[in-house]
Specification:
Length: 193
């Protein structure tokens, strides 16, 4: 059973690639962004609390997302591909704990890289179809990228130390990046004990 994290800045294509890999390798795609948007849609009190944060481009509180991931992991026995989580070092530490609790092992954290200009270009392009308020406002986009630099990038060092991190260039076409990702997952499957 493979358990992977797809890591990267807003707009890099985490959701797209996590979706492709989930389908190809029969993994459950767990996106915390999607879970939070579903909470907002449901009109739950939790959804009301997170809406303002997401619309401003702030990260939602660690406790909230950790609880959502815990619930999702408890509901499945299949391998998972996490997209948008962990986004802080606290979340990465919590994920270690959650995986142990749920009898899972992390196989790999794949970081997808692209230059900032390209991220902004992709978010603008996505805004045309996503209907996401946080994709449509330049200040919000800037703030999301700041949150990434300050709070999420340190997660890279956390996984570097544990030897789980692989970084790939995601600045090109979807097909190119997808091919690189599949090579990594094929390798992991071939060499997993
Ligand atoms: P993107 O990667 O393009 O920002 P996501 O759907 O992953 O898109 O995230 C959208 C928003 O949801 C984030 O800006 C943040 O407010 C919230 N969010 C998603 N995942 C997390 C997380 N793990 N921790 C805190 N906030 C999160």
């Amino acid at each position: 059973m493979e358990n992977l994290v797809i890591f990267g800045a807003p707009g890099v294509g985490k959701g797209t690639h996590a979706g492709i890999l989930a389908e190809k390798y029969n993994l459950l795609h767990l996106s915390t962004g999607d879970m939070l948007r579903a909470e907002i849609q449901s009109g739950s009190p939790l959804g009301e609390r997170v809406r303002a944060k997401m619309e401003k481009g702030d990260l939602v509180g660690d406790d909230v997302v950790i609880a959502l991931v815990d619930k999702a992991l408890a509901s499945t026995n299949s391998g998972v591909i996490l997209d948008g989580f962990p986004r802080t070092v606290q979340q990465a530490q919590a994920l270690d704990f959650l995986f142990k609790n749920h009898g899972r092992r992390m196989n790999c954290v794949i970081s997808i890289d692209a230059p900032r200009d390209e991220l902004v270009r992709r978010i603008h392009e996505r805004a045309l179809i996503s209907g996401r308020a946080d994709d449509a406002n330049d200040d919000t986009i800037r703030h999301r990228l700041e949150e990434y630099e300050q709070k999420t990038k340190p997660v890279i060092d956390f996984y570097k130390v544990s030897g789980l991190l692989v970084s790939i260039d995601g600045s090109g076409e979807i097909n190119q990046t997808s091919m690189r990702l599949c090579q990594i997952v094929d390798y992991l499957i071939k060499h997993s004990k």
